Amino acid sequence: AVELPIKFTPQYPGRYPCQILLQSSYDIRVYLIECVVNTDSTEAELEFVTPAYQAVIQDLPISNMSNQDWKLQAILEGHCFYGPPLIYVGPGETTQYPLMFKPIAECVTLGKLILQNETDGTEHIFGLKGIGRKPLALDHIVIDCQVRQITQKVLMVPNYTKNKLTYKEKPDLEEGLGLPRLPAVEYPEELEEPGSNPGQREPDTEWDLELELPAAEYPDELEGPEGPTRETW
Asked: In which domain of life is the source organism classified (predicted)?
């Protein structure tokens, strides 16, 4: 056996197919060689900035200049990042990969997206940084009510986490919102009336109303708060 040294010096990541033809007076041999080159560094650094509970989506274009169908598997690292687990790109086509960042609190989180091409073995790597700002108001509510009449309004409070949450209501109105007042208590003349009626509250009195929310439940194939998305870390 005789060794045949081959030197390959790629300049860019990608798939490089080639042929080597060995020919003599008595024999002809053809060797098919395919080299796959991946990069160790990220192709791009992406930064997402959005208020808590608000989603922002960035479409990442993946172009297939080969003659084969591509199947790419997505590996997501980092909290609050979501995207489909697989995408398919046809020959000569460009497909958008929708990457979503939806924080559930004020935070700064780092992550990484790796798109592994199962057809030719190449990888697309993206560095991720997500910044969750102070959340916006969930809604603008107008309550039409009559003087001296109790008006009730049901507020839907979402829980996007997988844990039970406890909220405390702290109204900044003089009359307050939340727990209704108890009726005033009448005392006989021979009984001394307490300093304040149990059912009355002074305007500057502070009180809290605790609200417990159950954890959000998602099907096994869904990891994110919206749509068929997946998050891994």
From this structure: Eukaryota
